[in-house]
Amino acid sequence: MPALPKFPALPRLPGFLRQPLGTSYLVIGGLLLAAVVLGMFTPLFVATMGDSPSKMFALPAAMVFALLLIYDHKLTLLGIILFRAALDPVLSLTRISLGGIPLGVGGLLNACVILIAIMLVFERPRVVPARAFWAWTPFLLLLCAGVIPSYERGEAVRQCLALLSFFAMFISGFYFGQTQAEFRSVMKVVVWSSAVPALYTFVDVALHYRAGFRLASTFGHPNVLAFYLTVIITVAFYLLQTMPASYRGWQRVFLIGYLFFLLIMLAMTHTRSAWIATAIGFGMYGLLFDRRYLVYIAVGGALALLVPGVGDRLLELTHDNPTGNVTEMNSASWRVALWQSAFGWMSPHTFVTGNGLQTFQHFSPTFFPLAGGIHWEAHSIYVQLIFEIGLVGLFAYLWLNWRVFKGLLPLIKVDKLAAFSLIVVLVNFLICAFSDNMFDILVYDWYWWFAVGAGSSLALSKTVTLTPRKA
Predict the structure, then answer these.
(1) At residue 306, what are phi and psi to the nearest 5 degrees?
(2) Are residues 191 and 239 in contact, defined by beta-carbon separation less than 8 angstroms?
(3) Where in the numbering of this chain does the O-antigen ligase-related domain appear (predicted)?
(4) CA 95, CA 240: separation in Å to the nearest integer?
(5) Which has fewest Cβ within 10 Å: 218, 269, 353, 406?
(6) Where are the domains of the chain?
(7) Is the pLDDT of residue 16 over 90?
């Protein structure tokens, strides 16, 4: 049989033609598309930023965060937790407004936190129990519904996303507290997030100290620092009382000294609700664990009253002119007048359904005779919830906190002092929420929700109980 003529072999097709949907080629294609989009967007971005070097930082920061997320999203979240308390002065410089919507690196961090939570859940969906999701679901749905009737849609969406980031922090905490060693490690990260604010205290005092001075450190308002410190002090005290015997003596002495410094910082904020919450926490510890702390609280409280700023701040509550103008009323009476005016203005059906997110501040010049043209916030999340998403929204939020509280109770069998400390953190928030705009204090909310999420995860473990060390 004659040999068949041989034809030259066809050239081998390139890999991207043989498998155009391969993972590596999709990633490369996505990066190329992102590069093209960024290239098109850069001139517009530069024109919008003008000559502001701080605002020009936003785009490179976004690219860095994207790379960090690709490298290790859990490590990225821990980095955010470690440094977020020190970033307010920097983030305020990067804020811009596009179409009336405030944007900046702070918003990028919020989106980053939410994205990390989604990634963690998709990777290991069974880590977080279903009841943790169901506890949040009614409240989050009501928040979304509250955006629809709002007169401030942009601000309503912003607040909705901020509260979603609290949920993301809570869920993310489950992935960092599955053993006692891991739980203690991430609680150390929470405590050391206060290192820069603690050091900046000296700068704040040097630059701004005068009569009536209130410490704010790296935060925008003294109250924000105060509420943040209620978490840090509680967690630092837990770490101190459960410090392993193998730790060196100087480490224990350092942590005691640092804890005292944090208490001094708290006193300098002049935030009374945070003082009360912290005192209640230490008082409950004295009743349940060590009665000597009741004596410490009594002596410390008496000494604190001798400090002019502390004593005067408490005495302000005894001076009042309820019928005068806003400058003649103490803060408690002013709040009561604001709340009474708000509830008196509401119609019966809005007590059930609410007026929409961010409408309290929108309508406050209308219903509050002492507003003076200022759009006042509610200064109480309970009043805010009733006004904006109705009694049903308030019940949904209280039910959420009740479910979180119940989720912490099994932690008593695993780590009694951790359970106590995190319940104190939760109760502290609910106390301070009576008189302050706690939903607007994002940094504080992130830290306490993350700590509670990690503790809720530890409650699911079966490890040996840690007991408080005797002083």
Answers:
(1) -80, -15
(2) yes
(3) 258-398
(4) 39
(5) 406
(6) 48-125, 154-458
(7) no
